Amino acid sequence: PAIPNYIDYFQVATACDRYFYIVQPLARGKSLADLVAAGTRFSEAETRCIAIEILRVLQYLHGLNPPIVHRDIKPQNIILGDDGYIFLVDFGAVQSVYRHTVAFGSTVVGTFGYMAPEQFRGQAYPATDLYGLGATLLNLLTHQNPADLPQNRLKMDFRGAFSGSEAFANWLDGLIEPLVEERLES
Questions:
Q1: pLDDT tens for each residue of 81-122
Q2: What is the mean pLDDT of the chain?
Q3: Which of 20, 77, 152, 169 has the greatest number of C-beta atoms within 10 Å?
Q4: pLDDT digits (tens, 9 = 90+) for 138-170
Q5: pTM for the full model?
Q6: What pLDDT score was predicted for residue 171?
């Protein structure tokens, strides 16, 4: 229910490329990015609730065969609906990767600051989406772009800008591990 319903799809072929489109209803509400820009402050409890809802969506997507990796989890792609429900939108990165995979090419898809390091090598795994979720949650809690946070050994060092519990900070650390093999997997 957190992914707008699929209505239809179509493709448009040009001389140079083929474009795939998914038709879905508009998720009415505001993106988390718009809310942060408007000054909304999210408490740790509110951020945990958002995390749980997105994790449910990711559990569904990653449990499909083959798994669907969103590749662009960020505040702009998470809508807080007018009814209070969370929606994950913009599966454009999925179609872009599909198109390049079919053509046996590779591409880097994502948004700087929210992209896991492996995405810069054109690779993505379910844990890649968890990195994007961790970066998104840091944006909600700190009101800073994750790319602007200090780094320590290539890892975002958010603790100076975070005033939440140590347990939550440790969990966030597990989401934003730069090495995919050290990051939380699910």
A1: 999 999 999 876 554 444 444 444 445 556 788 999 999 998
A2: 89
A3: 77
A4: 999 999 999 999 998 889 999 999 999 999 999
A5: 0.86
A6: 97
Of 8, 72, 129, 157, catalytic:
72
157 as an active site residue: the answer is: no
Residue 100 identity: H
3-state SS track over the chain: CCCCCCCEEEEEECCCCEEEEEECCCCCEEEHHHHHHCCCCCCHHHHHHHHHHHHHHHHHHHHCCCCCCCCCCCHHHEEEECCCCEEECCCHHHHHHHHHHHCCCCCCCCCCCCCCHHHHHCCCCHHHHHHHHHHHHHHHHHCCCHHHCCEECCEECCHHHCCCCHHHHHHHHHHCCCCHHHCCCC
